[in-house]
Specification:
about 700 residues, alpha/beta, Purple Acid Phosphatase, chain A, domain 2, Recoverin, domain 1, 4 domains, 18 strands, EF_Hand_1_Ca_BS, EC 3.1.3.16
Length: about 700
């Protein structure tokens, strides 16, 4: 009996260990592919940034197009934005059966919204715009770092990423209760993208924010960014749900996003930020930054301001040329006589020199703005952040790059077990920070620990850095049904974290514990390897070159060790390929792999879904996400169509980058050839088909 018990125990431990290994490998696959996609987004964004910086507009029309297309947002004053999003002119028809809102909002309004969204109803565009307008007004009065105290409520509940998964939010409210004067919540960013009900989540959170402004707190995440929304689905979701007023709703949402607070501080001891910190994180600077300048953290207003400065200079020079004859030598009447700047301080005094340069530039810019009547957006009324700046008149003036890095680091960074701080090359943005960086920040600001989100965790939460950094993630089944639990954390006056885990999936709830574990791992594993095979297929050409480099004698066969090294050299996913090999390589002979037949099997698997030539399908798989993002960038009004004018100006931008001149009639012929149905616009299917035909001809 004793031997039998030991045998059973050994068998069970071996089974659990293998199960855990399968789960970890599956997790690595999902996470590696997700982060590689984020890298692609930043690379694509940097490419367009390069184009913009190296393109010289030849006319005001081109300059206006470039500013609308690649700059992070149009400059709206308060009155202009309200006029643009005029919700009062939108009538609600009698046939509308959804919830009705009136302001100020009451708890009954929030309850009505919850019930309506459970029944798959949609809030009318008039109410959406009205809600966004009121939310924006409220957020403008909040500081960059919100201060919360547990003295006024029994506990504070902190939720992590939701990513458009409304069922998770419903489950949180069911388990923990709705926001109320005795139930405070902090939602730590990434409300949108990936999931299909991002807009509903925003509406619910904004409604509770207005009803309970002292109990509901929202932090900005890295997905509260208009450039990220173009790639990960939120822009598309809004335009599909609101085809008539979607553009106005998007404009208001992105303006609201840039006013979201950057962090929350509980009892001056627990700092809540979306991503993380770096060795240069400065909470004092974060408190004084004008956060609304950064509509997209990936691309702030730095280029916008530089391009505007060029325009200002051109306008001034033009006005001078028109007002003064070349031979005349008189003062410009429209410009006051400007005193010459004082002699520059000694180079030895670098700090003094820096202040002198900044002050001189600011003075010159201010004069230029007055001349051409240009004013910064959102300057009509003082905000909380601007009042902080005014109160501290002697504070150092930071560059736009320094401010942008502060925000980028707290929204995009991840912790690492090693000491130090280094660039986050996996995501492409932010940094990796070690336990020593965490310790220094905690000591400097007298904090107990940090709460962050930004990373999916299998159990919904995870401690690191000697329990000084807590990651909380609230979107369950993030990669696939059963892939992970969601969680939220509750903090009382003692600031001891209490966790609640959940999984918003009806199928898994009907299974026993053993069935659930086996079902979930098998399903998640199958989904992960399917995604990995698609990734391998998308890089077929590069893989063939890598395999041939290992196959010196041109036998068509390579060792499994060489196969693993070649695959990693192409995909750069950091996966344990030797361990994954049995799931990816079905048959081998004498430890050798016939790589051409293996790649043909991959192609057959993908071709069974789409009847396209293998080489073309490979290219489309590899580029579809980038192509869709490019299409949405060009389609600035988010109509789902690119006008001939938009395409014309975009092609001039590309041709200038590639040093290939194309005449006006040539561009017109090109755009007409892409417009297959001859309706005067280019939709995404036409855009993709043109790409496919070009690759086929090559």
């Amino acid at each position: 009996a004793f031997k039998a018990a030991v045998l059973i125990q050994c068998w069970y431990r071996r089974y659990v260990a293998r199960l855990e290994m399968r789960r970890r490998c599956t997790w690595r696959i999902f996470q590696s592919i997700e982060y590689a996609c984020e890298q692609d987004q930043i690379k694509l964004h940097n490419f367009f940034s390069y184009l913009m910086d190296h393109f010289t507009p030849s006319s005001n029309k081109e300059r206006d197009f470039i500013s609308r297309m690649f700059v992070t947002g149009e400059s709206f004053k308060e009155a202009e934005l309200e006029k643009y999003c005029d919700y009062e002119s939108i009538k609600v028809p009698d046939s509308y059966t959804g919830p009705h809102l009136s302001f100020p909002l009451l708890p009954d309004h929030a309850t009505a919204l919850l019930e309506a969204f459970k029944q798959k109803k949609q809030l009318h565009a008039r109410y959406v715009l009205n809600l966004l307008n009121e939310t924006r007004k409220h957020l403008k009065q909040l500081p960059n770092i919100t201060h919360v105290s547990t003295c006024y409520s029994e506990e504070v509940t902190v939720c992590g990423d939701l990513h458009g998964q409304l069922d998770d939010l419903f489950l949180i409210f069911y388990k923990n209760g709705l926001p109320s004067p005795s139930k405070s919540y902090v939602f730590n960013g990434d409300f949108v993208d990936r999931g299909k009900q991002s807009l509903e989540i925003l509406i619910i959170l904004f409604a509770f924010l207005l009803i309970y402004p002292k109990e509901v707190h929202l932090n900005r995440g890295n997905h509260e960014d208009q450039m990220v929304n173009l790639r990960y689905g939120f822009t598309k979701e809004v335009m599909q749900k609101y085809k008539v007023h979607g553009k106005k709703i998007l404009k208001m949402i992105h303006n609201v996003f840039c006013w979201l607070p950057l962090a929350t501080l509980i009892d001056q001891k627990v700092l809540i930020i979306h991503g993380g910190i770096s060795d240069t994180t400065d909470l004092d600077m974060l408190e004084k930054i004008k956060r609304n300048k950064f509509m997209s953290v990936l691309r702030g207003k730095e280029r916008k301001e530089s391009s505007r400065n060029v325009e200002v200079q051109e306008i001034i020079e033009k006005s001078k040329a028109e007002a003064d004859p070349p031979a005349a030598n008189k003062a410009e009447p429209s410009l006051p006589v400007q005193p010459q700047p004082a002699e520059a301080p000694s180079m030895a005094k670098k700090l003094e020199l820096s202040r002198w340069v900044r002050q001189t530039v600011q003075e010159q810019m201010e004069r230029c703005r007055r001349v051409v009547d240009i004013s910064e957006s959102e300057e009509d009324e003082p905000t909380c952040a601007s009042m902080v700046s005014l109160a501290d008149g002697d504070r150092p003036r930071w560059t736009h790059q320094e401010e942008g890095k502060q925000i980028l680091d707290i929204l995009w960074s991840d912790p690492m077990p090693q000491e130090g701080c280094r660039v986050n090359t996996v995501r492409g943005g932010g940094c990796y920070f070690g336990p020593d960086v965490t310790g220094k920040i905690l000591e400097k600001y007298n904090l107990q620990f940090l709460i962050r989100s930004h990373e999916c965790k299998q159990e919904g939460y995870e401690f690191c850095h000697n329990r000084k950094v807590l990651t909380i993630f609230s979107a369950s089944n993030y990669y696939e049904i059963g892939s992970n639990r969601g969680a939220y954390v509750k903090l009382g006056p003692d600031l001891v974290p209490h966790f609640v885990q959940y999984q918003a999936n009806k199928t898994a709830h009907t299974l026993t514990m053993t069935q659930r574990q086996g079902f979930q791992i098998s399903r998640v594993e199958e989904s992960a390897f399917r995604a990995l095979r698609e990734k391998l297929f998308a890089h077929t050409s590069a893989l063939i070159s890598a395999f041939k480099a290992c196959d010196k004698d041109n036998t068509g066969r390579i060792t499994l060790s060489n196969w693993a090294m070649a695959v990693e050299s192409v995909l750069h996913l950091g996966l344990p390929w030797r361990m994954l090999r049995p799931q990816l390589v079905r048959s081998t002979e004498e430890g050798m792999l016939e790589y051409k037949s293996w790649l043909e099997d991959l192609a057959m698997e993908q071709r069974s879904q789409e009847h396209i030539q293998s080489s073309l399908l490979e290219v489309i798989y590899r580029n579809r996400s980038n192509l869709e993002t490019i299409f949405r960038i060009i389609d600035r009004d988010h109509s789902g169509l690119i006008s001939f004018e938009e395409f014309h100006q975009t092609w001039k931008l590309f041709s200038s980058h590639m040093n290939s001149e194309l005449r006006e009639d040539g561009i017109n012929d090109l755009v007409r050839s892409i417009d297959f149905n001859k309706d005067g616009n280019i939709d995404f299917n036409e855009f993709l088909e043109a790409f496919r035909l070009v690759k086929q001809s090559q």
